[in-house]
Design brief:
Length: 134
DNA sequence: GTGATGACGATAT
DNA sequence: TATATCGCCATCA
C-alpha cells in the first residue's frame, strides 16, 4: 500500500468512538457504524475493530452492535444477555426488534463536530417527519 | 507482496 | 424465510 492511510490505530479508535454514541436500550448494525465512521470504513472493519477491543470492551458498548439481520454474531460473550439487561427486547426467533431499538445515528451536531457522518433516513422505519428538512 | 480470513451486507434463487 | 454467492476492506500468516 502506498498509502499509509491515517494511523491504523485511529481507524479503530474512530470506530470505538462511534460505537460509544449508541445509547442504552438501542442497537446499531455494523453497517451503520461503518457509515457513521465513513472514510471507506466497512461493516467488516467494524467487526475487526470490535474483535480487537480487548480491554476496551469494558468502556465500549460493543454489545449494542449487531448485524443487519438483527441477530447476535458473537457467541459466548453474553451479548444478548447484556442487551436484555438494558431493556432491549427480542422476538421469538431471538432477533433484536430492530423496529423498536434500531439506533437512528448520532445527532447531526455531534457528527459534524467530530467529523463523523449521520445515518441516512431508513425507508420503512422512518420515525416521523422529524428532520427531513434538509 | 501475496493469499487467506473475518463479531458483515446486499442480491439472487 | 432460508440458503447460496459475490463484494467489500483491513489484518494476519
Amino acid at each position: 500500500m502506498s498509502t499509509p492511510p491515517r494511523d491504523e490505530r485511529e481507524y479503530f479508535e474512530r470506530i470505538y468512538t462511534a460505537v460509544e454514541q449508541v445509547p442504552p436500550g438501542q442497537v446499531a448494525t455494523y453497517g451503520d457504524i461503518a457509515t457513521i465512521v465513513g472514510d471507506g470504513c466497512d461493516a467488516r472493519i467494524v467487526g475487526h475493530a470490535l474483535g480487537a477491543l480487548g480491554a476496551r470492551s469494558a468502556t465500549v458498548p460493543w454489545q449494542r452492535v449487531i448485524n443487519r439481520n438483527g441477530g447476535i454474531s458473537t457467541s459466548g460473550y453474553g451479548q444478548r444477555e447484556a442487551l436484555a439487561a438494558e431493556g432491549v427486547t427480542f422476538d421469538e426467533r431471538g432477533h433484536v426488534r430492530m423496529d423498536a431499538h434500531h439506533w437512528q445515528g448520532p445527532s447531526e451536531q455531534w457528527a459534524r463536530a467530530h467529523g463523523f457522518q449521520t445515518l441516512p433516513a431508513r425507508p420503512g422505519s422512518v420515525p416521523d417527519a422529524q428532520l427531513r428538512l434538509f
